[in-house]
Please model this.
Amino acid sequence: MRHSLLAAAITVSVAIAPQAVSAETIFGALAKAYENNSQLNSARAGVRVQNENVALAKSGYRPRIQGTGGITNSWRDAPGGSRGVTNASFGIEINQSLFDGFQTANNVRAARAGVLAERENLRNTEQNVLFDTAQAYMDVVQNRQIAALRQRNLAFLDEQVRAASARFDVGEGTRTDVEQARASRGAAQAQLEAARAAAASSAAIYRQLTGSDPSNLSAASALSKGMPRSLDSARSIAFKEHPAILVRHHLVDAGLYNVKSAEGKFLPQVGLSASVERSYTSFNQSAGGAYTGNSASIGAQVTVPIYQGGSASASVRQSKEQLGQARINTDVARDQVRAAVTSAWTQLQASRAAVAANSETLRASRLALDGVVQERDVGQRTTLDVLNAQADALTAQISLVQAQRDVVVSSYALKSAIGRLTAENLGLRVALHNPKEHFDAVKDKWYGLRTPDGR
Model:
């Protein structure tokens, strides 16, 4: 009977999560995060905000039209009494810039570069959210498996306490054996509660990322499709495709156009203006009267800046420093990506090796535990030896679960580090978000207060 209980306690398949007909997969969790995650939705809103900067910049090409109107009453003393005059007028003024030192053109180019940078920032956020979700998914799977192992270990130790007490009652064991078994059972109970708490904590993080509680999660495998074959290949892909680097490239372009726009303040400005006005004047004297008149004007104006208090010069210098900082930040991003790729690659290799090593350790520890139990039964080993052997077997089981989790998470980390952890690349069954649709809807709008979605 003891052998059957022992087998039930230690023969656990650590690679299989609880199964059900409606078991959720890791790709299902990633799809939920892609559609529901608030951080990702916030980044999408940030792209829409940035898109409007193009429309704002293009407004420099367009005329400014405004209506004017006014009324005044005035009085003055005159022979025979005071004399009052009422003047009223209304009209329309139009101002059109013809040349502004290429400031508007460069502002539009800078805004477009900013839009491209924000799109890459969105892609980087998408990668981070999907990686966090994959990690949370595997944490739930791992912590639930560990809790199950702790539960089985507690059941095994309960049997050891019962067996030690029975042997003590018939004079085959000692009080020490009984207390050692009880001490191990007490520690196992505490470890089980800690494992359950860890499982609940990881489930809360999972809900934060996906918007739903984890139900029955199926086992996940490490990514293999589209993965680099060497560390050098991984670095090469990352330097070309990682959004954190591409963001910096676009910000450098925006900085260059901002410098040119600031320099445009030193060039002549040419504008065209036109106005139409209708005026009305009346006198309140008995001998007075009233008359109306119309007027119109059109003209051009050239402004040549000579000295602007140093503000234009400071703007140029500041823009150049910002451009220099953007170029340095590109190097910073490359260094960070290089480190992330190297770390993910080495962690993946180490995790695979750990799985192989822990599998062998688990096989050996199970055999050792079975042998120690048999030797204890014939009086060659003590209860403490059995407890130690069980602890070794449990440690090997938990280490294998953790190593299997690390292999999957490391594969997602490597995919993220090379810039390919996206919904499109993973083939998630979701409606892909296209930031260009909003951009096309607003980039050339001349008027309108409603957003493209009707707000």
